[in-house]
Amino acid sequence: MPRQTGPQPAVERAGRDGAARWRRPLPPVEQVRPGLWSIPVPLPWAKPAHVFVYVFETSTGPFLMDAGWDFDEAFDELQAGLAMIGMSVADVRGVVVTHAHLDHYGLANRIREASGAWVSLHRLDEAMLRHFEHGYADRISELMIRAGAPAEMTERLLAGYQQPAPGLSRPDILLEDGDRPDIPGWDLTALWTPGHSPGHLCFWEPTNRLLFSGDHVLPSTAVGVSAPEEAVPDPLGDYLRSLARLRSLPAEEVLPAHEYRFTGLERRLAELDAHHAGRLSEVVEGLRAGASRVWDVAGYVTWHRPFRNLRGVALQNAVMDTMSYLATLEATGAARSEPGTPDRWRLIEP
């Protein structure tokens, strides 16, 4: 996911009629392969504007991959999409969720209540649900303090921050790397691809040579990774290693959760490697130039606009990404941190 798939600040939401000034028309419901459909489900912000819910036809009823954000318009569009292909939410037998970000997991409970379907998730992402229940404001405040962000920027970031999402239901099934979800007539294998989230899963379908990539590999966006923490000290390193394991797959087509389907997996993996290598070099240059706080180092990185002009989620993501680049440099022995308020970083020259 682009990084916006995590907790979000408040934005203009669509009304019950689905109208919003920034809303672009959704892509059409499409048949991807015989018995396999994609339904675009809207998100309550401008970018990314939708998540793809993939529908697997089986002899016992439909199974879904990912669910969408939990708001009325999304549920209405999912129901309408299923009706277009002769199905209903009540028919759904299972929901395979690629990761716990709420634009993927949020609607899973409504679907389960309407149908009795099981919901699956990786074990490490199940643990993330309690963070969403309590809200991420305290976590973001802590990260901004560690980064050395000016107090007024932290206050501005937190002012419209998303409220907690209490009462999130837990998955019925915990999938691990190599597990095969029980979807009759379909041969899916879970591939553990941590980085964007600790328990992110892609799914490989060898019969049609399809890779369901979730948010791990998107066709035009380089997704961010989670912030380093004690349990996950090097999320960017995890992400790069997860990219590498996909190189052996003879994928005919990649089906991501956002943007659009694409071919050329090997080429896209190489582009993502080069993107992150370039940013790592910029972080090294920042340290070499004397920057020591995360906030200062981030100013040396090429973002979609200058760091000083970033606001809201874009600013949050830039800070978290810079932390992840520094953590990777530390993991490889190229940099060292001195924890404090804020943290200080220095380059270890050979």
What is the fold's blueprint, element by element?
Elements: E1 30-33, E2 36-42, E3 50-56, E4 63-65, H1 72-84, E5 94-96, H2 102-105, H3 108-115, E6 118-122, H4 123-126, H5 129-134, H6 137-147, H7 151-159, E7 173-175, E8 189-192, E9 201-205, E10 210-214, H8 235-245, E11 253-256, H9 265-288, H10 294-298, H11 312-331, E12 335-338, E13 344-347
The overall pLDDT, averaged over residues, is 91
| Helix fraction bin | 25-40%
Strand content: 15-25%
Envelope shape? globular
Largest sheet: 7 strands, mixed
By secondary-structure content and strand pairing, the structural class works out as: alpha/beta
Run of helices and strands: EEEEHEHHEHHHHEEEEHEHHHEE
Strand order of the largest sheet: 1-2-3-4-5-6-7
Number of H/I helices: 11
Uncertain runs: 1-22
Q: Cα distance, first to last residue?
A: 36 Å
What is the rounded Rg?
20 Å
Strand elements, count: 13
Describe the overall structure:
The structure is a single chain. The protein is an alpha/beta fold and 350 residues long. It contains 11 helices and 13 strands. It has helices at 72-84, 102-105, 108-115, 123-126, 129-134, 137-147, 151-159, 235-245, 265-288, 294-298, 312-331; strands at residues 30-33, 36-42, 50-56, 63-65, 94-96, 118-122, 173-175, 189-192, 201-205, 210-214, 253-256, 335-338, 344-347. β2 (36-42) and β3 form a beta hairpin. The longest helix has 24 residues, at 265-288. The protein is globular and about 60 Å long. The two termini are 36 Å apart.
